Write the structure tokens for this entry.
Amino acid sequence: MADRNFTSSGWSTARRMYPALFLGGVGAVYGGIALTYPLGSVLRPGAGFLPVVLAAIMLLMAVTLCFLSTKYEPDQTPFSQSARPIAGVLGSFLIFGFAIERLGIVIAVFLLVFVSAVARSRTTIGEAALLAAGLSALATVIFVICLELPLSLGWW
Amino acid sequence: MSIFGEIGQGFAVATSWQNLTFCFGGVALGTVVGVLPGLPPITTIAILLPITFYLEPTSALIMLAGIYYGAQFGGSQTAILLNLPGTTSHAVTALEGYELTKRGKAGTAVVMATLASFFGGCIATIVVMTLAPALSRMALQFGPAEYFALIILGLIAASALSHGSFFKGLCMVVLGLLLGLTGIDVNSGQIRFSFGQSGLVDGINFVALAMGLFGVTEIIQRLCSAANCEGSVSQVRARDLVPSARQLRENVTPMMRGSVIGSILGIVPGAGPTVSAFVSYAAEKKLARGGTPFGEGALAGVTGPESSNNAAAQTSFIPTLTLGLPGDVTMALMLGALMIHGVTPGPHMIAEHPTLFWALIASMWLGNLMLLFLNLPLVGLWVRLLSVPYQYLYPTVLMFIAVGVYSIGNSTFDVMLTAIFGFMGLVLSRLQFEPAPLLLGFILGPLLEENMRRALLISHGDPLVFIDQPISAGLLALAFVVIGWSVVTALGRRAFRGPVAAKSTRRRTHD
């Protein structure tokens, strides 16, 4: 991450609180769930003991971070610029997860590579298809033929 | 028999052509899986385990061990070149190593990391050879309270090393501990934090977590900032590969320190290569004098941890073999392999199977030498990975991550989980949290809970047990010293530099 030039006064206090809010949120959710587990005694701490302690520490840290977070500088990358890589890369994993057992490794890797390749805005459809075909063959050779992983080759 | 007689006998067994072949096969394979992100050594060892059933126990152990420490060699390459730590113990190498790559010094970094790995491996093998019996007796004195204190110390040291603030590092440790508690609680059978997903009942898959937080997040971030960093792949010339005499001289001390830290922490069950790499990095960061500042590509931040994790990879065999206590998941698998071969690791193992033990030690020497000669000529090849245009490279890496994660448990859920953690990594990075301490908290979370419970049970519920014992009290005191030191240096730096300079050193000052 490159340091960016901007004046810190340009950011509202609310945005500076994001890290603290994140921690507080996670701490509250985990603490809430942990309270439903048996706490046990000091002699035999139950399933909820350590989680409750950790969630409490996390909430305390969130409060402390509110006072420390004056130097937090939010990332300025506009969302529009990052939506495509995020959706493409994460989407490619979801598609792979969906396809690997239903359609087999050849098609699953093809889809994974194709979708993740077009996540980069300057890659053309043709390039992506070519790369996907090549890597799908490579994956088949490495994982199925060389390593003999129990992966289904196709949908048949 | 004298120690020389025993090691001589070990060499005699290890240098049989059969064992040499398995040793070479192991280290070569280890290097490859270490280099390939998303194909962790644990997967490879798991895949090869059935094959080794047909081998002699000695050959099997030599080969599996070769994969294990070979991966420690290879894992540094992708950590440095692509910011993709092949194994957890290289997460720390990536911090400075990748900075060096971004500054066009990839060749030097990789060569120095290889030399450091060799150095650490050799030192640690001497330690294993000479001190194994004595050190295992010392480790026997570690009760649950001591383990608990040691884990606390490791976690706090891990936060002190994090890129950003000490405090935010601690926050990530706590988050990691919570994530580590996912799944069935072994004591009560209670399923925790599974959010109704059957895939989470056995806990979060570590590889999915690590690959999501490091691999996927990094790729998305590079794509997001594609406009300014793409095509900036550094050109590496052959002469850049040869480190200067000055670089060698300056890194001898970090390598020595790393080897010592690694050798000591490797012996302690539960610590292992990852913790020792973290501690070594923290030590180098604190001791750095002049030169390139940490966070901007300090070579000592690569050589220290690299010698440390290799040293620990060797010495972590001590608790596994002599106590039957595996240092990490891979060692747990090795333990299983030994048991299948009818060798029960424990205090009597060296006495009952001296040939096996000493042949393993001898093979470590040979294996390290092989790794050095295997890796140095290949450095050019690894560095050339960089000249592959990123547009082709990242889909390939994603392919290895996806297939690797899936193949561990044939679980599509884990693939989805990787995507989720990739997204979480993005959120954390936007909020300027470092993921490395989280990973350590995740690994040590279950161990922390288990040892806390045992200690309390043994002391009949007296929480003072953690400060009653001298070793445990000493370790906890050390943890407080680290906290105090970090707070004082952070405050001192802030006061000294003042608000004007704070911006340029943002990463290190906003504690």
Chain B touches chain A through 69 residues (CB under 8 Å). Residues 212 and 420 of chain B are 7 Å apart (CA to CA). Chain B has 24 helices and two strands.
